[in-house]
Amino acid sequence: MEVNYFHLLILICFLINTINAQESLLVVGVATDETDGYKRYVRSLKQNGLEYEILGLGEEWKGGDIKRQAGGGHKVNLLINSLEKYKNDENKVILFTDSYDVIVNDNSEKILSKFKEFSSKIVFGAEGFCWPDETLVDSYPVVADNEKRFLNSGGFIGYASDIYELITREPIKDEDDDQLFYTKMFLNIPTREKFNIRLDTKSEIFQNLNGAVQEVSIFADENGKIELFNNVTKTVPSVVHGNGAAKLDLNRLGNYLANSYSNNDGCVSCKEDTIQLNEEDKNQWPEVTLAIFIEQPTPFLREFFQKITKLNYPKNKISVLIHNNEKYHNLEVEKFFTNHESSSYASIKYLTVTDDSSEQEARRSAVEECLKSDCKFLFSVDSTVHFDNSDALKLLIEQNRSILAPVMKRPGGSWSNVWGAVSSQGFYKRSDDYFDIIDGNILNVWNLPYVSEAFLIKGEVLKKIPVEFNDETMDPTIKFFTTIRNNDFFMYGTNLHEFGHLINPDGFNTSKIRPELFEIFNNFEDWTKRYVHPEYNDYASGKVKPQVPCPDVYWFPIISDEFCEDLITMMEDFGQWSGGRNNKEDSRIPGGYENVPTVDIHMTQVGYQQHWLHFLRKFVQPMQQKIFIGYYSDPPRADLNFVVRYRPDEQDHLTPHHDASMYTMNIALNIPDVDFQGGGVRFVRYDCSVTQTIKGWAMIHPGRLTHYHEGLKVKGGTRYIMVSFIDP
């Protein structure tokens, strides 16, 4: 009889495909509580279109405290009950995993394909630690150096009938250890051979992260999907398990995996579970307890309160609690309190310095106030937080996360209010994506291990956790969020929007009469907004041309009224004015002699020389380069920078002279015909005078040769000017 091998081969392939088509994958997990980790797990299953069944929801957990000791037998018994209906089903493939610390990143087709390549009935995940019984190390088969040797029961896959038969061979108590239960079965050679049990030593399906975090990285496939890659075994695992100490590492990877983020679509999970506050019916917006903490001397607190007041949220929905631990800030806080005490906010409570409450006590009081009023959210804001976006609170609420912080940083630096990772001691550690987070290179709602300075937390979360701030070894908020992490709540930081920035309080010296004047280095942007003239940028950009009141004399706005007033206040408070025309000897300058002296105080005397030189470089030099084209000196040098005071009874004018400079800048600090009468400057060669000087405006002119000039007589009041001899 002649055999048609070609047709026989077709028949065999057809039968194989028919059998394969009948196989189906069911993911089975165990979770008694719907924690944030559980919700992430279920989301990952849905994103991959996986059929799943969760065991134990709503039931009492009987498997012991597996965070601190061995246990988990309850999982096995739940699985036994669940698989009884499949005990004779040879085509049902079960993927069993833990739920709270697992992310599945593949669909059923890929997972089944990987499973079949093992040619095994049951495959367990593998790890680098022999736990919970280290004495069993030598009982394990030896594997290659780049492979994991020991069984991990947090994930396994196999045919339902085989798994059922395996786990019903011996009884297990709920409080017994499930990993030891499976380990003994694997190490029993007859059992291992009967079920052809294998370990996924190369992490082809299961990636257990504990002890292996440094071995993995993420990449985007050709469709933009983020995959996990094992750099040691060159595999792309389907199931990622944050076992043991790797739970925070799983949280970090979870910001990308399971279609949380896509290179093509950006942040996918950010658009899920959000809410929309109705602008037409603000009476329905949730109640918020706004807790403000002033725990250290903080520059630009006035602007802080202005921005708090401007938040686009109905004030009758906000109850305010303020804790001020700094006497220096009493006046500013009391001003805010007085302005809003009898109106605007739903309520306002002020814990003053005299109340003698610690930061820990104040933060606990804020939580208690929120719980007492049954608030929907606690919005905790430190005095270092500047909300430049008035929609900040609204945007955070609409994102609808249990705990959410606006990602903010100190301008120009790397300090932010979030951590990307935590060290083994529980303190700051920089993650690989930290700068992507704080600089907004990747936009996401990030699962983070720690947030601070500004955060929104749901009232329902506060009801579920022990509120702990006291710990001598750590900051109160670090203690608080450590407790939150230990209670299985996720905290998030969002950089989807520009919320504002953080103030740098380091070195803020409140012994100065006007301490913000000295913040040009630490808080340049805020310093600029307060102290640079609001019209300066129009001139610096070339949008508006400087005025030219006399030949080669250029006039433009440069400093704010407040700068003028603060500078005068600082000089008068210092009070050591020079002798003026009655004293040409001057030990403050090289050579000790001033040919044309004025009544003045040098910037060096008040500790402001370096600050002023920085000001010259940032604001004067750009204008000089537009005015005197072709002259470039960076940084500009100016040894003599001083405030001059003219009075009729002191020194009322200045005789004609040249300046010891390449060019001179003269800034009017107060107003003619209001603060003083007379005064001004006359350029002798051109017989050109400027008498109606403008407060905060700078006049720039050449210092030598062409611009011989004199200070005109002041007939009443006091005239102040700021003078710099630049590039002598």
UniProtKB/TrEMBL annotation:
Annotated Gene3D superfamilies: q2cbj1_9rhob like domain (2.60.120.620)
GO cellular component terms, A-Z: endoplasmic reticulum
Signal found in the keyword field: yes
GO molecular function: iron ion binding; L-ascorbic acid binding; procollagen-lysine 5-dioxygenase activity
Classification via PROSITE patterns: FE2OG_OXY
Cofactor(s), by name: L-ascorbate
Keywords: Dioxygenase, Glycoprotein, Iron, Metal-binding, Oxidoreductase, Signal
Pfam families: 2OG-FeII_Oxy, GT_PLOD
Domain Fe2OG dioxygenase residues, every copy: 637-728
Signal peptide as annotated in the record: 1-21
Protein name (Swiss-Prot/TrEMBL): Fe2OG dioxygenase domain-containing protein
